[in-house]
């Protein structure tokens, strides 16, 4: 859809400035992270248009108004349909649990808006298919639909992709990916929406596994063609938070418990299209590991390793060097020649988690303005969803090889 052009005649403020009105649904963790991205991108990067935080939406009026004030949104809505209908919203950013992604994204695309949707794209393959189809129809009208795999925007990982594309690793043999957190180790940790299959789709698999599946395929430049999985829910009942316990036994004295309906941990192996082998581990039960997303890729000519807890660094081993001096060395990915870094701090000053959302906002705006193909697209999100479904199918069969359909 067309961007809004504020002219002198319209606003009285020279010179003409194009803006992109953003409307965001959801205001919790991801909402806060995306707000930061939209707020900051235009201040750091030279952008062809300026993102404007037009309106934020959530069901609870008091809470959403507080979020609007805190994160810098001009208006608050309590109905996402009203948000989509606003004339000052040209892009809808979906930061809600997975059970509402499809409905909101499809409605927004059909209303002529661009869409950025948090990962995983949906809770089921059928929903993701409908979203990818809606995105394709919208693309013909010039709209953009992007899925929020924000870790692609870590400069070290964008750079790793470029090195692999250049052939620095040669033919790939292995992708090893783990994403480890520990916030569910405590069995008294409450039963939030992330532990309900109906709301979240799956547990560690969709929450964390989606990221490493996407990164593995993005870095390798090829899809997984088959997987073999095991999965476990170690703690099967958890305390229901007071607000949600009404009507349940124990609601009155705060001892109500409910069933965990998703995986705490899922491990799987896979085969990439080229024949390279991959292994994945997604868990929220790894005591001591807070946000440990680690990747290692081995090829015929060398290897690359990355650890999100040291996200300004990339380890690289060039296997073509003489064995007497070859070995992993640390590349500090903070030079202005590295992806995204030209706009940030002098070399060595480093970036963090939140910058991925700033980079994401910049890329979404540029994709829209420059008419580029969206990346990662809803089709990419659908493909990840198919991998997740194959993993679940395999895990249900106790680790039987299951092909990923195309
Ligand atoms: C929670 O486990 C979570 O916030 C994920 O949902 C995010 O996608 C990940 O980036 C960090 O961990």
Automatic annotation (TrEMBL):
Boundaries of every GFO/IDH/MocA-like oxidoreductase domain copy: 159-304
Source organism superkingdom: Bacteria
A Pfam family assignment: GFO_IDH_MocA
Keyword field: Oxidoreductase
Gfo/Idh/MocA-like oxidoreductase N-terminal domain segment(s): 21-144
Gene Ontology MF annotations: nucleotide binding; oxidoreductase activity
Protein name (database record): Oxidoreductase domain protein
Organism of this sequence: Streptomyces pratensis (strain ATCC 33331 / IAF-45CD)
């Amino acid at each position: 859809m067309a961007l809004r052009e504020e002219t002198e005649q319209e606003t009285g403020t020279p010179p003409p400035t194009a803006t992109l009105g953003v409307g965001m649904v959801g205001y919790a963790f991801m909402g806060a992270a995306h707000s930061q991205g939209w707020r900051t991108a235009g201040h750091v990067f030279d952008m062809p248009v300026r993102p404007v935080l037009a309106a934020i939406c959530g069901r609870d009026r008091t809470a959403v108004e507080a979020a609007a004030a805190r994160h810098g949104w001009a208006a608050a809505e309590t109905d996402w349909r009203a948000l989509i209908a606003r004339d000052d919203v040209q892009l809808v950013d979906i930061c809600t649990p997975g059970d509402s992604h499809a409905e909101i994204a499809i409605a927004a695309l059909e209303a002529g808006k661009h869409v950025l949707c948090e990962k995983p794209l949906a809770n089921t393959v059928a929903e993701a298919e409908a979203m990818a189809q809606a995105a394709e129809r919208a693309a013909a009208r010039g709209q953009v639909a992007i899925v929020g795999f924000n870790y692609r925007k870590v400069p070290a990982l964008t750079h790793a992709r470029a090195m692999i594309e250049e052939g620095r690793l040669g033919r790939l043999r292995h992708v090893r990916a783990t994403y480890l957190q520990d916030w569910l180790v405590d069995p008294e940790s409450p039963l939030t929406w992330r532990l309900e299959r109906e709301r979240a789709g799956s547990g560690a698999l969709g929450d964390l596994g989606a990221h490493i599946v996407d990164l593995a395929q993005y870095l390798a430049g090829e899809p997984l063609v088959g997987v073999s999985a095991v999965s476990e829910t170690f703690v099967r009942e958890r305390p229901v938070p007071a607000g949600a316990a009404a009507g349940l036994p124990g609601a009155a004295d705060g001892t109500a418990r409910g069933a965990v309906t998703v995986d705490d941990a899922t491990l799987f192996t896979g085969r990439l299209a080229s024949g390279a082998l991959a292994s994945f581990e997604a868990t929220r039960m790894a005591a001591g590991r807070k946000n440990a997303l680690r990747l290692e890729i081995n090829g015929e000519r060398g290897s690359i390793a990355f650890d999100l807890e040291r996200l300004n660094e990339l380890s690289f081993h060039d296997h073509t060097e003489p064995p007497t001096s070859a070995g992993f060395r640390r590349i500090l990915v903070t030079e202005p020649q590295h992806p995204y870094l030209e706009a940030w701090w002098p070399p060595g000053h480093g970036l963090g988690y939140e910058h991925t959302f700033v980079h994401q906002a910049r890329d979404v705006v540029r994709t829209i303005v420059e008419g580029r193909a969206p990346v990662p697209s809803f089709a990419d999100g659908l493909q990840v969803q198919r991998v997740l479904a194959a993993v679940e199918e395999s895990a249900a069969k106790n680790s039987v090889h299951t092909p990923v359909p195309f």
